[in-house]
From TrEMBL:
The lineage of its organism: Bacteria, Bacillati, Actinomycetota, Actinomycetes, Kitasatosporales. InterPro entries: PspAB-like. This is Uncharacterized protein. It comes from Streptomyces kronopolitis. It comes from the Bacteria.
Amino acid sequence: MGFLDALLGRSKPVRPDLDQLFALPSAAVTLQAAAGFEPTGLGSVCFASVEGGAFSRIQEDARALLDGSVEFSQDAYGYSWLLARHPAEDVAGLVNDLHAVNTSLEESGFGPQLLCSLVGFRDERQRPLALVYLYKRGTFYPFAPTTDAGEKRDNPLELQVRAMLGDDLTIEQDLSRWFPVWGAPGL
C-alpha cells in the first residue's frame, strides 16, 4: 500500500483466511449435540461472477479437483455458486473440498471475488440452517431462513446458535454483516 492510498483511506483487500473453515467439523458436533441440527452433506462457495473463459476454466478445475461431484449456478444477483455434496456424516470431507476449491480460486487470482462459503444443516422439524463464512471478515454467522412463505429469518434461532458456537467458531460480532443468502445452494 502506497502513501497516497493511506492518505486517501484506501486499503488492500484482506486475504481470506481459508483455514478458518477447518473449525466447522467441531462446530457441527456442538450444533448437533446442543440443538439437534444435523449436517445435510451440502456445502457451497459463492464468488463474484467471472466472465468467459476464466469461468469455464474455474468449472473445469473444480470438477477435476472434486471428481465431478460439483454443480454450478448463478443467483438472481449475478453471483456464482459452486455446490459440493458429501454424505451427511462426512463434514470433514466436505470442508476439505470447500477449502480446496477456495484455495484453487485464490491461487488462480480470484481471491478478491470470494464472498462466502456455507455448510447446511437441518433439525428434526426440517428447519434449515447454514453456517456462513465471510472471507473478507474471517468470521462465521448462522443464517436460519424460516420455512414459511417469503423471505423471513428465524432471528431467535440465529442468536441461539451464535451463543452455542462461540467457543468453536470466530463469530461475526456486527449483526449488520449477517447477510441473508436466500436460496443459496446447500441450504
